[in-house]
């Protein structure tokens, strides 16, 4: 197992290295004191676990985590801090991968055990124990891998795959308001071989609103004259958690984002 720890405090690097070498004497251990050294190591070596100090100069741990995941999607991220206030709304920080300084063997083992449970859980349940998730969120979107959408644990069904892709595009754009013209322009830029008319986009939007309403998700997308309003506050997604630097969102990304949709680009 290859482990990287990034911290601007030398004493933390030395202590952490000692703990990991005791737990996994056959593993390889790398240390870095800033984001440049860390990215150089990730570029040169396959890293299984990267433990990142959340508070560092120039680039903090959450921002560095996103760069590492884009460079090495299979790397699992953990966060490290000297302050419990850095982990708000997390019921079991060490089990989620939020570790306190100095590193303790038991906290690391607790995370390893919990991580195996998390990655084997059905997708709709992955965020159910995360106390940071608002109960107002009614639609859960799986954006990493193939795009899937859930109402609770029930997967939404779409009679037309283009309607499903339109919902994916709305989530990807992360805008509260989009016009039919916006959607028409973006769609045809990325589908030059299969362009659609503005009227077709309007029909797809109408079908999407009906589909969500029929599956007990009214109000997620509504039409207001010539524009469509998207209630982003009601949508939870691994994509959003990734962008917010949330550990579960970061560690759910394994290199594939909204597979099959040519406009989807995480970088």
Pick out its properties.
single chain, 267 residues, alpha/beta, five-stranded parallel β-sheet, four-stranded mixed β-sheet
Low-confidence stretches: 129-133
Overall radius of gyration: 21 Å
Fraction of residues in β-strands? 15-25%
The structural class is alpha/beta
Overview of the structural elements:
The protein is an alpha/beta fold. The chain contains ten helices and twelve strands. Strands 2-1-3-4-5 form a five-stranded parallel β-sheet, with helices on both faces. Helix 4 links the parallel strand 4 (76-81) and strand 5. The longest helix is centred in the C-terminal third of the chain and has 17 residues, at 198-214. It is elongated and about 65 Å long. The model is unreliable at 129-133 (pLDDT under 50).
What is the gist of this entry?
This protein has 267 residues and is α/β, with parallel strands linked by helices. The chain has helices at residues 10-23, 35-44, 61-71, 93-96, 105-119, 161-173, 180-190, 198-214, 238-243, 247-252; strands spanning 2-6, 28-32, 49-53, 76-81, 98-100, 139-142, 148-151, 154-155, 177-179, 221-224, 227-230, 235-237.
């Amino acid at each position: 197992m290859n482990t990287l720890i990034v911290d601007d405090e030398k004493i933390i690097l030395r202590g952490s290295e000692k703990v990991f070498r005791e737990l996994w004497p056959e593993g390889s251990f790398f240390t870095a004191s800033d984001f440049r050294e860390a990215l150089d190591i990730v570029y040169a070596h396959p890293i299984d676990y990267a433990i990142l100090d959340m508070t560092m100069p120039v680039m903090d741990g959450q921002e560095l985590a996103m760069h590492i995941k884009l460079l090495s999607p299979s790397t699992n991220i953990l966060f490290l801090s000297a302050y419990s206030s850095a982990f708000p709304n997390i019921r079991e920080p060490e089990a989620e991968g939020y570790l306190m300084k100095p590193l303790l063997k038991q906290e690391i083992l607790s995370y390893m055990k919990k991580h195996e449970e998390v990655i084997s859980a059905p997708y709709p349940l992955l965020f159910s124990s995360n106390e940071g998730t608002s109960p107002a969120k009614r639609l859960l979107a799986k954006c990493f891998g193939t795009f899937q959408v859930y109402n609770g644990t029930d997967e939404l069904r779409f009679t037309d795959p283009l309607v499903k892709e339109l919902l994916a595009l709305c989530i990807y754009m992360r805008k509260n308001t989009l016009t039919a013209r916006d959607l028409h322009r973006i769609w045809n830029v990325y589908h030059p071989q299969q362009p659609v008319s503005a009227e077709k986009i309007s029909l797809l939007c109408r079908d999407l609103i009906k589909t969500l309403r029929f599956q007990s998700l009214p109000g997620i997308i509504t039409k207001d004259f010539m524009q469509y309003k998207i209630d982003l506050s009601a949508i939870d997604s691994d994509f959003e958690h990734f962008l917010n630097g949330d550990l579960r969102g970061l560690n759910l990304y394994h290199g594939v984002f909204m597979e099959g949709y040519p406009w989807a680009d995480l970088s």
